[in-house]
Amino acid sequence: RSARGEKVLACTGTQRAHAALTRTLRPCAGKHFFATSGTEAVECALKTARMYTGRNKIVARYSSYHGSTAGSIAATSDYRRWFAEPLSKAGGVLHAPPAHCYQCPLKKDPKTCKLACLDYMEYMMENENPQDIAAVIVEPVVGTNGILVPPADYLPRLREYTRKHGILLIADEVMCGWGRVGEWFAVNAWNVTPDILVTAKGITSAMAPLGLVTTSRAIAAHFDDHIFSHGHTYEAHPLTLAPAVAAIDEYKRLNLIERSKSMGAKLGAALRKLADKHPSVGDVRGMGLFWAVELVKNRDTREPMNTAQDKVNRRPTVIDAVTADMMSRGVFCVGWISHLVIAPPLIIEDEHIEEAVAALDAALCIADRAVVAA
Length: 374
Known about the structure:
Blueprint: H1 12-25, E1 31-35, H2 38-53, E2 57-61, H3 70-75, H4 79-82, E3 93-96, H5 116-127, E4 133-138, H6 154-164, E5 168-172, E6 196-199, E7 211-215, H7 217-222, H8 238-253, H9 256-277, E8 281-287, E9 290-298, E10 303-304, H10 308-312, H11 318-328, E11 334-336, E12 339-342, H12 350-368
Parallel strand pairs: 2-3, 2-4, 4-5, 5-6
Antiparallel strand pairs: 1-7, 6-7, 8-9, 9-10, 9-12, 11-12
């Protein structure tokens, strides 16, 4: 076969992974590129978008994290990017407002704004010339920066705009994919099909270093007769692909996608009860087993307990005190500036939720003491 010019490099494990992922990722899947992390997968996605469209500009959003390599850190828009500039920042990236309805950067009321943040993004793209924009990259549900669930019409309308102008839509599902929000992938919740989907973490339950870029069939076909100028030594390594196949089998065997939805409803209800009890809790938001509890000094003003500058300058934060207290009670929780990121394993049981919420309930008394009058 090799003498006839056929490619015979794919091992059985690679073929099994391709087949399993194609079934799971429909209708997104055309072809897959396997990296060794989410960061590398995002880097590949951005390069792919530019190669396919022949355009340079990328539109990302504030309050999103996409990685730490040159292209992915340029698309990132939280304080982690600040330390990388200018050495690690690639050009051609623009940032639009996030869909952060509780702390709206445009000071709008989500009940009446009619997606003002998306209006602004479209305004940006119109004035940057849509024909120069290769892609828009979004976390469908923003991860570390607040578990920001978009309004119902947000992603469908963004998809419509990008399709109209030949702009690719990249869904970064490194955090929100693999059942985390009660769907295999977050875009499924809004029936949106991106041109490129990026994922990692849950693809192997984080037990092996694997990132994935999957493209539409149109993009895949383009590279049948165009050079794909990307690759690295350990791409599609069999030792990383085997756990992916096993993980997909376990997601299905344990019915973890539906379980995320049902257990997430219980978790969300328990967290909302804490908001009724603790004046420091400004907002509780999330879906599936992906939640945030945002702490504020005052509910009327919505002033956050701390800011990114506090983190950068290593000043003590209320959220760190809360998470430390929870840890002393045997519960680990991620704190991020002024909110808690609550993303338990999809196999969590009722008693685990009760234990974790009880620890949070006790720890929030620390935050309550930091509440101030308007």
